[in-house]
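Box 3.1 — From sequence to structure: DUF975 family protein
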Amino acid sequence: MTRAQMKQASKDQLRGNWGWAICLTIFAWLFNAIIMDINRWIWTGKDFTYSILRYNNETLIQGYKPGYDLSKFIVGLITGLVLWGVAYTILDFVETGNMETWYTGIFSAYSNGRFKNSLCTLFMVNIFTALWTILFIIPGIIKGYSYAMTPYILKDKFAAGQTDIGATEAITESRHLMDGHKMDLFVLDLSFIGWGLLGIITCGIGFIWITPYYRQTKTNFYHSLVANN
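Predicted structure (token representation):
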């Protein structure tokens, strides 16, 4: 599928289903924002909104404690699994037409026996990406694209009934699947820059529609890759 075909397929799939897709986006964002803000408040005594309104850049420095970085990493896993749950739900919709309710969809990485495999795989993705980024920024970005299909591959393994999945198995398959296609995904991302600017101009309101559209298109990108391999 070309980029235009992927985008058109996404629009066709979302037609009449925007409410469901928007709920997935809003409530996943809301849950993650609350979790991150609670963690920030516990360690700094200030929530994100307070810091923005006061333009206080010293909040984190003044409230820093040795365990703060570890807590942010743990929170990153919690919120990352929510985003993977959204990816699982959208892929299921693309492949089967099933629309899991948003309030179960955003937590689908935590349920149905998926939690252990999802957590271990996400942990390894974060570690690998961080290590490559520490070396150089560009290699970190490239590896991020190499690992981009990991949650979708993992979801397909769950759908196939696999329960014993190695922590790096889906990552390795993503690297192979993206071999020669990283630039394709990068260009697809670039094609959403105009939409991103529109979202910024509308003070973020536009992202309520743009984010589901982008996620749907990225899922179709994966679906197209698998169909041609």
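Summary of the box: The chain has one domain: 3-227.
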